[in-house]
From TrEMBL:
Belongs to the TonB-dependent receptor family. Residues 348-821 form the TonB-dependent receptor-like beta-barrel domain. Its main location: membrane. The keyword Transmembrane applies. It holds the Pfam family Plug. One of its GO terms (cellular component) is cell outer membrane. It is found in: Cell outer membrane. Keywords: Cell outer membrane, Membrane, Receptor, Signal, TonB box, Transmembrane, Transmembrane beta strand, Transport. It is a multi-pass membrane protein. Residues 1-30 form the signal peptide. It comes from Parahaliea mediterranea. This is TonB-dependent receptor. Residues 52-172 form the TonB-dependent receptor plug domain. PANTHER family: PTHR47234, TONB-DEPENDENT RECEPTOR (PTHR47234:SF2).
């Protein structure tokens, strides 16, 4: 087992960052008294513009005050309420996403966790060192920067591959830090749920200062979360039932026989003849978590036209999450020898269950993340008023993942009397047996995984005035980009040897690649109020994987109050290193036609180096009308995806295996992919692959509005944001039927939960030192394709009141509020935990107190 290291790149970038902040030769500096840098770089463009609103692409901004008005204390609190974000993972789900506890992500348009590019101050961030259960790689938004250091979020809601390359198919989310902050500010937040002992405590501090040429900003935060357990909420009861429990079930020559203790120590008879186990009380709905974040920026003006910036960030997250007392035997059903003291049948029998039940209490797993980022840039103007930028970044995330599971070899040995630390003891599998704790401990191993991802980037960009037309100046930008991605997972020996009876296992892996890109962009004034934007990017991943993606946009402003925008382009997303090189073990419910039953079994997915890149056509058309008091905006968006990279659904593989067997075929790929227990013919393992699916086509509308009224009773602001999905038609293969994923949970295909409507309505009021905010959040009803039932619509109300006051010569604000004031439960789902973890929040009403103090 070798662990891939990327540490030397850190030293290289530190040296590079220091070098680019040194004074430049006079030949690169502007001559005379040229104006200082005043234009800004807008998310979605490399051409400097007077403001971020002069863009032909749909761009929404969530400012710091907007975040605080929502009662937000973390990035997740903001991102999960974005209407255009659908199917993301923002809370733990030990069954569907056990490896990613403590992370969060963004999924614009439900096009996949890896289809949204997440940046910090316009530069990329490394992917998380863990991948989602469906094989998606993503940027961990929990590890970016302290919440108190965020100035705003800029969300580009159309494809941006022509500007930023792969990973920007669905759009871009750019986190902008408070670089210009002056003074000292602290912020304390405490939030507690009414159910259980769940609470969040967050403390942040920021300092900024300097002189006319140099400015420093330092920020830090600490976040502490007390867990909410499934046992704290009634709707989880009885939603996680297993036929493999303790007490267990034995297969004798006469058939299946339940443990005689079934029904007395936590088990219960099931209709299928197995002793069942309810493991729903043993999960987190929100896990125990601690997170420390540090962030610093330094900006220096070397001259009127040359400035440099250095950025450092560090994040450490520790998560402890619980699961069932021990995991079921999924990949192997061991033999209980005739001479085992728990064998009541006088013959060798097979055991179906787990080594511990309710009496043992929950098992505990840990995730630890360390994330580092160093970024620097240098920018200025040539003598001809062209701008130039040179920038680089290095970021990495390391993860340690420790999860217990039963070892096959030690379980077999213990059943045969060779268990325990001295290899001379029995494990009696009968309920109530007096087993030595040392024997149980000897049968349990750990994943012991150390993983790492890293990203090194360099960009060189120049932009400026190209030539004059009658309607104005043609602007242009030209640039080159390089990045190096690395991924490595080093698992423990037991995992490598595929020893685990539930988690199975797999090999270590590491991979790396270099990506090169050239890009250009033009802003062309056609008339005084019509501008065209043309851009293109060529990106090369090596080994014949490359793409040239153009984009054409238009912005027409016939009056000061009305503007129309539109864009059309192609997008490209290369397979991730995880999808091409990793081996992923997971567990899933799957239907077995052979036994006419749904079983929970292990699946192993293998990386596929022959995957084709995803390709997409993207269209956006929008209009905005605004005056001093009212702003209305509407955008139509359309994506046509081909060759989507997805993980095969185990049900499909099993269905093909059964069909091939019934047709008298042998040795087919599906038959080789499904392993069955020879004694019972039950599935023990399914091998799946990452594949290119056929297509997905989706479109919809974004609506937003804001009305401002300034009266003697105060300043009122009414706002609303909605996303409506018209269609999401997908095909899993060239010959498969078309599935419309809109209004469906999509449990049986590769899409994620996708309600048709999602939106917010807000009302703000401010008068003097007082302010108040109310939010109505709505998620439409949708169908559960797994059960055939409807998942109800869901509406919650959030309230906040704030009072600003002087504290000596300083300013302070005290706010109180409630999330989900009416304590609405998440809509019921006939599945594990009883609700949809990718849509709804299970915590119910939460009350919070916020204190902000600024010197």
């Amino acid at each position: 087992m070798t662990k891939h290291k990327a540490k030397p790149a850190t030293h290289s970038l530190l040296a590079a960052a220091g070098f680019i902040l040194l004074p430049l030769p006079a030949s690169l500096q502007a001559q005379g008294n040229s104006p200082a840098l005043e234009e800004v770089v807008v998310t979605g463009s490399h051409i400097r513009r007077p403001s971020q609103f002069d863009s032909p692409s749909p761009l929404s901004v969530v400012g710091r005050e907007d975040m605080l008005d929502q009662g937000a204390a973390t990035v997740v609190d903001v991102v999960k309420n974005l209407p255009e974000n659908s199917g993301a993972e923002f809370q733990v789900d030990n069954l569907a996403q056990p490896l990613t506890s403590g992370t969060s992500n963004i999924n614009l348009r439900n096009l996949g966790l890896g289809s949204t590019l997440v940046m910090i101050n316009g530069q990329r961030q490394t992917l998380s060192a863990v991948a989602a259960t469906d094989g998606s790689s993503f940027v961990d938004t929990n590890s970016l920067l302290p919440f108190i250091a965020i100035e705003r979020m800029e969300i580009l809601k159309d494809g941006a591959a022509a500007t930023y390359g792969s990973d920007a198919v669905a759009g871009v989310v750019n986190f902008i830090s408070r670089d210009n902050f002056d003074g000292f500010e602290i912020q304390a937040n405490y939030q507690a749920a009414e159910h259980g002992d769940h609470s969040d405590a967050e403390f942040g501090a920021i300092w900024g200062g300097g002189n006319d040429s140099t400015h420093l900003m330092l920020a830090a935060s600490y976040f502490d979360r007390e867990a909410m357990y499934s046992a704290d909420r009634d709707f989880t009861e009885g939603t996680a039932l297993s036929s493999l429990g303790h007490p267990g079930t034995f297969l004798t020559s006469g058939g299946f026989v339940m443990d005689p203790g079934c029904g007395t120590v936590g088990g219960f008879p099931r209709d299928n003849g197995f002793c069942g186990f309810d493991y729903s009380p043993y999960f987190d709905l929100s896990p125990d978590e601690q997170r420390t974040q540090l962030f610093a920026t330094a900006r220096h003006d070397f001259s009127e036209t040359v400035s440099g910036r250095l950025e450092l960030a560090y994040n450490k997250t520790e998560v402890e999450h619980i699961a069932s007392p021990s995991f079921p035997f999924l990949t192997f059903f061991p033999t209980v020898p005739e001479d085992n003291p728990g064998n009541l049948w006088g013959e060798d029998v097979s055991y179906f269950g787990r080594i511990q039940g309710a009496e043992a209490g929950p098992s505990v797993a840990r995730n630890e993340y360390d994330t580092l980022r160093v970024a620097g840039n240098l920018e200025g103007q040539f003598a001809n008023d062209w701008y130039w930028t040179a920038q680089g970044s290095y970021s990495e995330q390391e993860v340690f993942y420790d999860r217990p599971d039963t070892l096959q070899s030690r379980a077999v040995a213990a059943l045969a009397g060779r268990g325990g630390p001295d290899n001379n003891q029995y494990w009696n599998p009968l309920a109530g047996a007096d087993n030595d704790p040392a024997v149980i401990a000897d049968m349990i191993g750990s994943t012991d995984m150390n993983g790492e991802t890293s990203l090194l980037t360099f960009d060189a960009i120049t932009s400026g005035e190209l030539f004059e037309l009658e309607a104005g100046t043609v602007m242009a930008a030209f640039g080159a980009h390089y990045r190096r991605e690395e991924l490595a997972h080093d698992w423990g020996e037991d995992y490598n040897n595929q020893e685990f009876l539930s988690l199975f296992g797999g090999p270590d892996y590491d991979a790396e690649r270099d990506i090169y890109a050239l890009f250009t962009e033009f802003s062309i004034p056609v008339t005084a109020n019509l501008e065209l934007q043309a851009s293109a990017r060529y990106e090369d991943y090596g080994d014949g994987v490359n793409s040239l993606d153009p984009k054409l946009g238009a912005l027409w402003q016939p009056s000061d109050t009305l503007s129309f925008r539109g864009s059309v382009g192609t997008a490209f997303r290369a397979p991730s290193l995880f999808q091409t090189d990793a081996t992923q073990a997971s567990q899933a419910n799957m239907y077995d036609p052979l036994t006419d039953s749904t079983v929970f079994r292990s699946a192993q997915t293998n990386g596929n180096p022959d995957l084709d890149p995803e390709q997409a056509d993207v269209v956006n058309l929008g209009v905005t009308w605004e005056n001093d008091t009212l702003e209305l905006s509407l955008d139509y968006w359309y994506y046509d995806y081909e060759d989507l990279i997805v993980k095969q659904v185990p049900d499909a593989v099993v269905a093909q295996e059964v069909a091939d067997t019934q047709a008298g075929l042998s040795g087919t790929p599906a038959q080789l992919a499904v392993t069955r227990d020879p004694a019972s013919n039950l599935i023990t393992l399914v091998q799946t692959d990452f594949i290119n699916a056929s297509s997905a086509e989706t479109d919809g509308i974004d609506l937003s509005g804001q009305y401002r009224l300034d009266s003697g009773a105060g300043l009122f602001r009414f706002g609303t944001q909605w996303t409506w999905v018209n269609k999401y038609e997908l095909r899993e293969s060239g010959g498969s039927d078309t599935i419309d994923a809109v209004g469906s949970r999509n449990k049986l295909n590769f899409a994620r939960s996708l309600p048709e409507w999602k939106g917010n309505i807000s009302l703000d009021w401010a008068l003097g030192a007082h302010s108040a905010t109310a939010y109505l959040r709505y998620t439409d009803s949708y169908d559960d394709d797994n059960s055939g039932l409807e998942i109800d619509s869901h509406a919650t109300v959030d309230l906040r009141y704030a009072y600003a006051f002087a504290l000596g010569e300083s300013e302070a604000t005290l706010a109180v509020g409630a999330i989900n004031v009416t304590d609405e439960e998440p809509p019921a789902v006939v599945d594990l935990l009883g609700y949809d973890t990718k849509v709804h929040d299970p915590r119910g009403r939460m009350l919070y107190l916020n204190l902000n103090y600024r010197l």
